[in-house]
Amino acid sequence: MRPVSARLAAIAGLWVLAVLAGATPSYAQARQTLRVVPLVKDGQVLVSFELVNGLTDEVRAAIQSGLTTTFTYNVELRMDVPAWVDRTIATAVVTSSVEYDNLKRQYIMGFRVDGRTEDSKSTTDENEVRQWMTTVKHLALFKTTMLEPNRDYYIRVSATARPANGSMLWPFASGTSAQGKFTFIR
User: Fold this and answer.
1) Which residue, 61, 69, 50, is CA-closest to 135?
2) pTM of the model
3) Cβ 78 vs Cβ 181: under 8 Å
4) What pLDDT score was predicted for residue 167?
5) What is the pLDDT of residue 163?
6) Which residues, listed in sequence order, are joined to residue 16 by a DSSP beta bridge?
7) Residue 21, pLDDT score
8) Strands 135-143 and 44-52, sheet pairing
9) Of 150, 114, 108, whose CA–CA distance to 129 is shortest?
């Protein structure tokens, strides 16, 4: 009986190693986190968010190759409804894109909200590209006129990247999301 149990232990050990090896890319992706901070001010819901560690080595390589790389952030303003399905009040799509021009050695960046170009510029600074692609500060996306006083709300942000090359190492291939809560008091 000893040889059978030793064989089972070896098989179980190999199975555990296979599971851990398969989990490694997921672990690498887990270090990317999305932070969301809503702020109500002057009749607007201002949204700030940051994708921490979003510009991975794989993303940098894609950018340096000249591929247009786009981070898409789907932003939802939702009402917290206890013991029921939360209600979506409004949505917005925020995109940050960058393309590297190898001849001029500069990055061409674009920022859109719901398909409208809000800002564009070029730079040679990779740190500025990282900031552009992963951080949004105090963006007025929603008006407070659509909110009910003394209710709990939250901003939910989901991030995806293009091109999605199908690699397990590509960041947040299936998307990453987070939320920030607030109470609207008039």
Assistant:
1) 50
2) 0.78
3) no
4) 46
5) 82
6) none
7) 38
8) antiparallel
9) 108
Q: What are phi and psi of 56, to 5 degrees?
A: -75, 175
Structure tokens at 121: 């510029």
pLDDT value of position 20: 37
| Close Cβ partners of 138 (under 8 Å, ≥ 6 residues apart) | 39, 46, 47, 48
| CA–CA distance, 52 with 14 (Å, rounded to integer) | 34
Triad 75, 60, 98: Cα angle to 5°: 55
Please count the helices (runs of H) and the strands (runs of E) in the chain.
Answer: 3, 9
Two structure tokens written together for 131: 């900031």
Domain regions of the chain by residue span: 1-30, 33-184
Q: Kindly give the parts of the chain with pLDDT less than 50.
A: 1, 7-30, 166-170, 172
d(CA 131, CA 43): 27
Q: CA-to-CA distance for 158 and 151, rounded, in angstroms?
A: 23
58 in helix, strand or coil? Answer: helix
What the block records as the tokens of 145 is: 């006129």
